[in-house]
Specification:
By secondary structure, the protein is mainly α. The chain contains 19 helices and two strands. It is globular. GO terms for molecular function: transmembrane transporter activity.
Length: 494
């Protein structure tokens, strides 16, 4: 793991801060890669382990349910027990679970390993932003650090698709999990040395066991219900019944937080217009971008006939564009024009991305029809770092882990909603067109067009929310701990 400075570094800045950012970014990249790398290898996994079509979805669902369901709890645990400790435990669990997944010889073992990977990912991811915002307290430096962090999330998915195709085709699907071992072990070794030690406020400050059980059960059940919509439908008793129970559990959690002496999630955090508004924008944006990240890949494979490796390479310009903007432009523009202006610009570009996809033809050519879409995806590199900065700037220092967990939770909720809503709409439209006698390629393209159009509408709504809600000055950044060194100029991992 190496690091190169993204800007001039003051001679008194300790290298440990640069390494800390590199460690957190590497951990985030490992988690994001694992999420996307699996999708490319799923047909091979199904054949090798003899998964049923319905059972195969649990390779993804088991991870999503554990990850999304535990993020909020994990963020608060970081505030209470120390974020470094929780990051280390999460990374260790994820790495061990990756080894279990790599040696799995049955569907049950692989699904269990994926659930444990989700647990580890939740623990490590939930506190990452909390560590960053306490390390980098100056607005300009924080923007650069968050840009690096956001890049790993935004571009890592596309990189995972390329890497997944290469590893699966050249070696075997086992290597998509084995690759996590050296990365995880290196991350642990460096994190032990460079991440700032923090004791947390102690369990007495928020050891709300009942609240923890309510929110974890509510989120897990809600995400499970959403990801199964494609199988059961929106109006089925399964969906309505479990959805109602999930909403009831979350409502009881909010009531509990309003009355508990030591709440797991103090509701005052939602009184911050920036925190609440940024999380709402994120749900809408991430739900919409499912149509880009996943449905474009499906279009390339199912309509244009691309293989796994070619699909990943076709998506690579999007990753490069997002990375160039995240690391080289976003922080500078935020410092000059403000995060809100940069966010709105990024959202406007994303409307253009989905608008172009609504018009993509059945027999598209890559250079004139798809490459412009990939390059305009740079808007995500503008929007996500600015949105993250806005959301985290509304939280107090002792709530940074909770705010980080909340922000990651809404990201997972947005992803789950995107999967459920847009894939269901695309499939229904495709079935309608097939019933009218359209060819398979034309019917699939028509289904994707509808999903892209709905995604564009979600981005427009996100733009309206950001424009009207995310106003006003940011909260003063959390104060530096007394025993901490001054923040370093953030760097990118090579």
């Amino acid at each position: 793991m190496s690091a190169t400075a993204s800007g001039p570094t003051s001679p008194h800045v300790p290298p440990s801060h640069r390494l800390a950012l590199g460690v957190i970014a590497t951990g985030m990249l490992m988690v994001v890669l694992d999420g996307s790398i699996v999708t490319v290898a799923m047909p091979t996994i199904q054949s090798d382990l003899r998964f049923s079509p319905a059972g195969l979805s649990w390779v993804v669902n088991a991870y999503l349910i554990a990850f999304g369901g535990l993020l909020l709890l994990a963020g608060r645990i970081g505030d209470l027990l120390g974020r470094k400790r929780v990051f280390l435990v999460g990374t260790a669990v994820f790495t061990a679970a990756s080894l279990l997944a790599a040696v799995a010889t049955s569907p049950a073992v692989l699904i269990a390993a994926r659930f444990l990977q989700g647990v580890g990912s939740a623990l490590a991811s939930a506190v990452s932003l909390g560590i960053l915002v306490t390390l980098f307290t100056e607005p300009a430096e924080r923007s650069k650090a968050i840009a690096v962090f956001s890049f790993t999330g935004a571009a890592g998915a596309s990189i995972g698709q390329v890497l997944g195709g290469l590893l699966t085709d050249a070696l075997s699907w086992h290597w998509i999990f084995l690759i996590n071992l050296p990365i995880g072990l290196a991350t642990l070794a460096v994190a032990l040395r460079v991440l700032p030690a923090d004791r947390g406020s102690g369990l007495a400050a928020g050891a709300d066991v009942i609240g923890a059980l309510l929110v974890t059960a509510g989120l897990m059940l809600g995400i499970y219900t959403i990801v199964k919509v494609a199988e059961y439908g929106w109006t089925a008793g399964h969906t309505l019944g479990l959805g109602t129970v999930s909403i009831l559990l979350l409502a009881l959690f909010l009531i509990r937080q309003a009355t508990a002496r030591t709440p797991l999630m103090p509701l005052r955090i939602l009184r911050s217009r920036r925190v609440a508004g940024a999380n709402l924008v994120q749900v809408l944006m991430v739900a919409a971008l499912f149509s880009f990240q996943i449905l474009v890949a499906l279009y390339l494979r199912n309509v244009l006939g691309y293989g796994a490796t070619k699909t990943g390479l076709a998506m690579l310009p999007a990753a490069l564009a997002i990375g160039a903007v995240s690391l080289g432009v976003s922080a500078r523009l935020s410092a000059r024009f403000g995060e809100r202006a940069v966010l709105l610009t990024g959202l406007a570009l994303l409307v253009g991305v989905l608008g172009l996809l609504v018009r993509v033809p059945v027999h598209a050519r890559y250079l004139p029809d798809l490459l412009p879409v990939m390059l305009l995806a740079a808007g995500f590199g503008l929007a996500l770092p600015a949105l993250t900065s806005l959301g985290m700037s509304g939280a107090k220092e002792d709530e940074a882990g909770l705010a980080s967990g909340l922000f990651n939770t809404t990201q997972q909720i947005g992803m789950a909603l995107g999967v459920a809503v847009l894939s269901t709409l695309a499939a229904a439209r495709t079935d309608t067109l097939l019933a009218r006698g359209k060819g398979r390629a034309e019917a699939l393209t028509g289904g994707y067009h509808l999903a892209f159009a709905v995604g564009a509408g979600l981005i427009v709504t996100a733009f309206a929310v950001a424009f009207t809600v995310l106003r006003g000055p940011a909260r003063k950044p959390p104060a530096m701990p007394r025993n901490a060194n001054p923040p370093a100029t953030p760097v990118t991992t090579a």
